[in-house]
Amino acid sequence: MFENLSERLSGVFDRLTKQGALSEEDVKTALREVRVALLEADVSLPVAREFVKKVQDQATGQAVTKSITPGQQVVKIVHDAMVDTLRGEEDPGALKIDNPPAPILMVGLQGSGKTTTTGKLAKRLKEKEGKKVLMASLDVYRPAAMDQLAVLGTQVGVDTLPIVPGQSPVDIAKRAKQQATLGGYDVYMLDTAGRLHIDEVLMNEVEQVRNVVDPRETLLVVDGLTGQVAVEVAEEFDAKVGISGVVLTRMDGDGRGGAALSMRAVTGKPIRFVGLGEKMDALETFEPDRIAGRILG
Ligand code: GDP
Fold first, then answer.
1. Which terminal CB of the chain, N or C, has fewer other CB atoms within 10 Å?
2. In the 8-state DSSP scheme, what is residue 217?
3. Bridge partners of 159?
4. Who contacts 156 (Cβ-Cβ below 8 Å, separation ≥6)?
5. Can you tell me which atom of ligand 1 is nearest the CA of 112?
6. Hey, is 157 helix, strand or coil?
7. Is the complex ipTM higher than 0.95?
8. In what order do the strands lie in the sheet with 217-223?
């Protein structure tokens, strides 16, 4: 196994005995290591290149502080540059849900964790913000998905729209809107159908639903372990239906979290939450600091 990036960087510098300022050569050597580590964390090549260039400009000529080693200093510069790249919204967890009932559209591929995340987010809105939430499944292809949402609703104490077989996603969306209005709900969350791959039918369906409810937030749920694929999925969803933010799931897994860095740099969309497990409270607001620490190892 490789040592982690922090150790590798320190190692490079421990071999150098130069004092004073970081020379261009020192920085170049270290940044080769950074680039390799980023690629290993599944950051895309253009993003890794651009990032390394940014750090190079910042690090060259910086005076070496006496209290820390040059290696530690470069680690800090790299860490700060990552946080800078990852930082999006000031408060990523603050959803635009004033003006009730506020629709939140949940989109993503099948298996990404969309239904689980819908339940987690509903629980969070209810418990942390005191919101009255209604959830509805629009997955007319998989009755099991509708049942799954109903089970989660019971588990977290959030209402779900009664299931009426034979309705189209648009019909269900309209019914959810009506129920949310009549029932005095603050928020209604629509869990759209996922598919294994992006296709026209899926996108058209999401588009039709979007046109009916005019969502305040359209959150894309993607599997953080799929790395660059997650970024491609986000680009496609954003181009076709427009997303307001991303939820990265399975960040409790072994992945290094490189998808987060690429996501921000490539799509320009903020990561709002990260999923950290299967349980209903395993959802956290996105913190750039934590992800940077994880990529650095
Ligand atoms: P959907 O098809 O996109 O709605 O996906 P599901 O919500 O049904 O999730 C698929 C599987 O992933 C389930 O077994 C979930 O428990 C699991 N899952 C969802 N989010 C996370 C997460 O953040 N971490 C882990 N470890 N598992 C997750």
1. N
2. E
3. 134
4. 119, 120, 122, 123, 126, 280
5. 3
6. coil
7. yes
8. 159-160, 133-137, 187-191, 102-107, 217-223, 245-249, 271-275, 283-285
